[in-house]
Specification:
This protein is of the alpha/beta class and 361 residues long. It has two domains: 117 residues, Aspartate Aminotransferase, domain 1; 215 residues, Type I PLP-dependent aspartate aminotransferase-like (Major domain) (Aspartate Aminotransferase, domain 2). The longest helix has 24 residues. The chain binds pyridoxal-5'-phosphate.
Length: 361
């Protein structure tokens, strides 16, 4: 019995990183969560949510959050569209803009949800490979002339960053909507948040999942000209942001001092961890996000991933061309990172002893 459209039947679903049960004792460095708790101001709002806020439907466009985000970013609330995580904004964009004959273009490897959402729409994709240094393949993306061009910035899983100038130049060359996915921007040196003002085809996506430590809340948003947001609103779920996310998210985004303090700690730990891994012979790509993409020196990436898992440390290993010799490690607290480094040294030295016993070089 064929219950589904042919493309749905054939597509492979998005595979999220493993989520151990609450209370399971693992060092969890596999899904790029922030190791620090959410803002105390946001937690206070959460504690004060009352039944009346839940009895009624929420305000359908999460106005309180749009106003809070607008005040922080210097945009009018009409330029901000929130969603159930930035994934929800991506869903709206693919629904509204892509179909067979209306393709999506993006550099790869990148966030794999882009290809999943294109499959749902049965839309073609133009996947332009990055070079080894993850430079922006601007000519090929422009030449694709797709209905949507997506650039994750910083990119995942490389952590590398493009300048706002490079992105602005690309926005002027692509044909359709240009999506700049800034999920990790809170850990970066620059942002393209000013581009929607200057470029009529740009939408910048942000999330509270990473910088604001609220991946469980599910709140993200897009910043673009109201004409773009009006189109996306036609395809959004009617109440896509619940009353709790709206109220708690508004308090979280208003607390920039707390977010910046946590991001500064993550950035400092990122530098420390990168240095330690490099000293052990790993190649470490320059990261502007809260994770590192690394290539191990001697032992295979899959073997290190398995060895870490056995020792209670979860990181991410993507078994796909171009990534299967690399590992993505989320930045934890300094204590978690130290546990990771101890486990990696153990794995590398036991592999080295094994080779020594077999008389290998
Ligand atoms: C590049 C990128 N964009 C978007 C998201 C989705 O974030 P959210 O939790 O806001 O849906 C992720 C999540 O890992 C991501 O890596």
């Amino acid at each position: 019995m064929n219950l589904f459209r042919p493309n749905i039947q054939q597509m492979t679903p998005y595979v999220p990183g493993e989520q151990p049960g609450i209370g399971e004792r693992v060092v969890k460095l596999n899904t790029n969560e922030n190791p620090y708790p959410p803002s105390p101001a946001a937690m206070k709002v959460l504690a004060e949510i009352d039944g009346e806020q839940l009895r009624r439907y929420p305000q359908p466009t999460a106005l309180a959050f749009r106003e809070a985000a607008g005040a922080v970013l210097g945009y009018d609330a009409d330029w901000i569209l929130p969603g159930n995580g930035s994934d929800d904004l991506l869903t709206m964009i693919f629904r509204a803009c892509t179909e067979p004959g209306r393709a999506a273009a993006y550099p790869v490897p990148t966030y794999s949800l882009y290809s999943t959402l294109a499959s749902v729409q049965d839309a073609e994709v133009v996947e332009v490979p990055f070079d080894d240094d993850y430079n922006l393949p601007a000519d090929a993306l422009a030449a694709a002339a797709s209905a949507v061009t997506l650039v994750a910035n910083p990119n995942a899983p490389s952590g590398t960053l493009f300048s706002p100038e490079e992105l602005e130049a690309l926005a002027g060359r692509v044909r359709g909507l240009m999506v700049i996915d800034e999920a990790y921007v809170d850990f970066a040196d620059s942002s393209a948040i000013e581009l929607p003002r200057r470029c009529p085809n740009v939408i910048v996506l942000r999330t509270l999942s990473k910088g604001y430590s609220m991946a469980g809340l599910r709140l993200g948003f897009g910043v673009a000209r109201p004409e773009i947001l009006t189109g996306l609103m036609k395809v959004k779920d009617s109440y896509n942001v619940d009353a709790i996310a709206c109220a708690v998210g508004a308090a979280a985004i208003a607390d920039q001092a707390y977010k910046n303090e946590c991001a500064a700690k993550v950035r400092a730990s990122r530098g420390l961890l990168a240095g330690q891994l490099e000293a052990m012979g790993f190649r470490v790509w320059p990261s502007q996000a809260n994770f590192l993409l690394v290539r191990p020196p001697t032992v295979g990436a899959g073997q290190i991933y398995e060895g870490l898992k056995k020792r209670g440390v979860l990181i991410r290993y993507f078994q796909q061309p171009g990534l299967d010799d690399k590992l993505r490690i989320s930045i934890g607290t300094d204590q978690e990172n130290a546990q990771l480094m101890r486990a990696i040294s153990e794995i590398l030295s036991s592999a080295c002893e094994g080779r020594g016993e077999r008389g290998e070089q």
